[in-house]
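hey can u check if this looks right to u? its 233 residues, i copy pasted from the old doc so theres a chance i mangled smth
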Amino acid sequence: MPQETCGGDAPRTDPLLYREPVRGREYWILDGALDDPFGVAQRCVTKPTWLLGSPWRAEAWPGMRAPDALTPHELAALEGRVASLLGVRRLGVVPDPGTGMTANNWVQLVGGGEGVARPHVDSAKLCTHAGVLYLHPYPPTVHCGTSFYRLKLPDGRLGGNVCPPDYDSISQIPGLREMEPGQWQEEVEVPYEFNRLLVYRSDIVHSATAYFGSAYELASKRMAIVFFWWAER
């Protein structure tokens, strides 16, 4: 288990590493991500078939999801822009070894009563970077985007925010529960803005800040497209 952090005020017994979330290093923002965001949003919200998560099924993710949010042409154009933003050769997608499936390019709808902030990291086996594209044209608040968190240590100090490379997720670290909100302190919030793509390193602790919308009206819910990429340099 790591005995040091990468900076900050955490004691040496902190089980996580720490990197200050710096735009352009730990996370990147691409505004105006799609050429036709209203058309994509309308196409996504009218999808006929959805996979349900919590609270309806025992899933770690909330709300409802559907695949193929962007067309192959739209996805290729977006990935080209993201690769340039990250300074990498290309972005690949790694299927889950257990299912052979991937959650990349899925649209997710989550209402206000269907989920809360759940700090976590994304699987180091499946991606080096993750992304979320905000697609609700008129969110009721900007405080429903994505936040980055630091661990709260028992002595009251703030600890790390990065999963050590020896672990696939922070839930594997003894004494830590990956998505227990009371263990975490919000450090940076990236607001929700229509047609904004947020990309971040998959090993940094993050969560949707909050959700909104009615359970009975799909178009009212927080809508986002999620991506999980393997950056090839």
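Residues 72-86 form the longest helix (15 residues).
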